Amino acid sequence: xxxxxxxxxxxxxxxxxxxxxxxxxxxxxxxxxxxxxxxxxxxxxxxxxxxxxxxxxxxxxxxxxxxxxxxxxxxxxxxxxxxxxxxxxxxxxxxxxxxxxxxxxxxxxxxxxxxxxxxxxxxxxxxxxxxxxxxxxxxxxxxxxxxxxxxxxxxxxxxxxxxxxxxxxxxxxxxxxxxxxxxxxxxxxxxxxxxxxxxxxxxxxxxxxxxxxxxxxxxxxxxxxxxxxxxxxxxxxxxxxxxxxxxxxxxxxxxxxxxxxxxxxxxxxxxxxxxxxxxxxxxxxxxxxxxxxxxxxxxxxxxxxxxxxxxxxxxxxxxxxxxxxxxxxxxxxxxxxxxxxxxxxxxxxxx
Amino acid sequence: xxxxxxxxxxxxxxxxxxxxxxxxxxxxxxxxxxxxxxxxxxxxxxxxxxxxxxxxxxxxxxxxxxxxxxxxxxxxxxxxxxxxxxxxxxxxxxxxxxxxxxxxxxxxxxxxxxxxxxxxxxxxxxxxxxxxxxxxxxxxxxxxxxxxxxxxxxxxxxxxxxxxxxxxxxxxxxxxxxxxxxxxxxxxxxxxxxxxxxxxxxxxxxxxxxxxxxxxxxxxxxxxxxxxxxxxxxxxxxxxxxxxxxxxxxxxxxxxxxxxxxxxxxxxxxxxxxxxxxxxxxxxxxxxxxxxxxxxxxxxxxxxxxxxxxxxxxxxxxxxxxxxxxxxxxxxxxxxxxxxxxxxxxxxxxxxxxxxxxxxxxxxxxxxxxxxxxxxxxxxxxxxxxxxxxxxxxxxxxxxxxxxxxxxxxxxxxxxxxxxxxxxxxxxxxxxxxxxxxxxxxxxxxxxxxxxxxxxxxxxxxxxxxxxxxxxxxxxxxxxxxxxxxxxxxxxxxxxxxxxxxxxxxxxxxxxxxxxxxxxxxxxxxx
Lengths: 351, 527
Known about the structure:
Strand content of chain A: 15-25%
Distance between the termini of chain A: 52 Å
Strand order of the largest sheet of chain B: 15-17-16-19-14-18
Strand content of chain B: 15-25%
Number of domains of chain A: 4
Largest interface: A-B, 112 and 149 residues
Number of strands of chain A: 16
Largest sheet of chain B: 6 strands, mixed
CATH class of the largest domain in chain A: Alpha Beta
Structural class of chain B: alpha/beta
Low-confidence stretches of chain B: none
Number of helices of chain B: 20
Low-confidence stretches of chain A: none
Oligomer: heterodimer
């Protein structure tokens, strides 16, 4: 099939048939706001914030779900579009707590960003506001459904990608909330705490507990690491402030994991700062470990190794390398054992 | 893995054998779900009703340790019903006739009797796997941790070759490796019989190459595996041990035997980030940097090499393992000098054909590279064995079913299998020091069938004494139909109920992997 040519904000673009207007615009570097759009889920057009004006179309269209058509002419920031987006933001704000000062999401909240972009600071719609209890029954993250804007990304990720199916939309209209069946707390649901819902929530409705009060997004340095657990090789960012890890987030371009994580990778990094970490070399004297300098400890190891080789030969030594250490370290480890004259080197590949 | 993780999502059939994928490799299980959503047939062979088994079209609930019989039975049906890939067998393999003779003995009826899987399920699964355009096999320790571990893997390879499911996308034989760098540790020559990239110890050219590059004479005698080394310590042949980040006191089968071995050593040095159960036996303990504190590369289960960067400094005087090793080597007279991990990587790549085209710059630019990557312009290899196996023709190896080394009897009437659950990892060194994970799953819950529990007077959460010929532990039980009557399951995450005090250190004669998936135990109410 041939490609489709269209015009967005006065610029020509050529894309494959079936491409959405949103995708075509992104190809041009045009930033159309989205809340519910998730590249890994089928479009649901729920939030309408991505509406654009299409010439000859009567109504504004949701760019996340509308496919491009030949010679289409699209305006992403026309007066009509801006008015519609402002109205949507006011409607959301009418029922959204404005505690941005202490909200963990401040600085990376899409609602905040779009209100700033369109100059919305308050809502003139008055009415009932949600007053739902926090769900902090689990040690991983807090669910504050008062902040939820019902975009549904968490539901889609839980059901389609993880498969746990712990949450869904409950009730209707104003009373709609996202949660486990029967209004149970999340700890009692089928949730496996992969945190993928937390990572796509556009607002502060889902917040990891570990980082609360520890740092703002703009104060945090994100460092790419490879998860230390199973062999999948998930790429993720550790969030660092003042030399401490205060959070983690997936690498959405991770070649093995595409931004997906599990409970261990997402939430199990805090052992790095455990008080139990070894911080000094230790030498056992009369059955008790005594702190030593690096020179003392390494001199002793070298002396003992030399002595054993002298007395019993190099094959009296065994080295266990590590499936947790880097390639470089494993390379040096076997090089050391083999240089000492033995091939007695193995690791726990079988366990 | 012969293939890549991403390809699983496009497989038309997936056969998972001996892998509790959603708990041990959660992100890979997401790809399996994606494939199922797109219409793939899922076949799961597992004694337990895992999440993947619940998702499966066919759950082959075999008796623990009967994998070879099951796989031979599937191949018997595929051959009998003429569902095999004749073209692939003719052009790419050898030894088919012998395999055919062997699996002819494994009639569906006989296999049903050995495995406990219904003939109708065997037939349906065999047809689904064999007739799919692309079928991927995923396996893990569920088939390798047996005295017949190598036989099980050979049988899996036979099945894949019989149906031509090798050398093309979304197919293959795919071991899901259990540790973040277990593939890398193997690739780097952390094995007694091979240098880096599986270059054999004893091959004169290989010996010469490494001896020259390292400037030292090298032994051409293959070394000992860890399982054999444990016995060698008891025999007085191994006197000293260097351990870098391994906790074998909790991870080895028959842990008492392993602990006694460490006691016997004249000298033990352990590099680790915590005072592990193993480090406690050491004469010298060296504090190491954790993954988040150092630069380096890791190789995942799909042969993908990725860079990981230091996020925070190591605590106190802890140092990266590579620095410790360089200092130690220099004290032993080797005159090593590396400016950092990149220099080490470059030396390794220059000696390792499958990594030869990789560099830190390329890894950063491409985000990752999958080996083999033999030269600087090579894009890496997402799936192996295209058109040709490394040995030329693919070898069919007929194997016979052999029962596990220790079967239940009157004294020890249950079969115990060990493994992992989702919220902890291996011996718990890391996850049990993670506050949220530990808070969520603080203790062992031995899985036992409600009928067995009722007979023993055990209720949910009661404490039970689990004993074997090698040791005993006390732990809470959970009553669940995930296990069949007569089968119990424990993890090895909890030092206070260390499952490996019970397990059997009988091992596969080829791979020396211990039989952690089957041993005989007794269960009784404690207190």
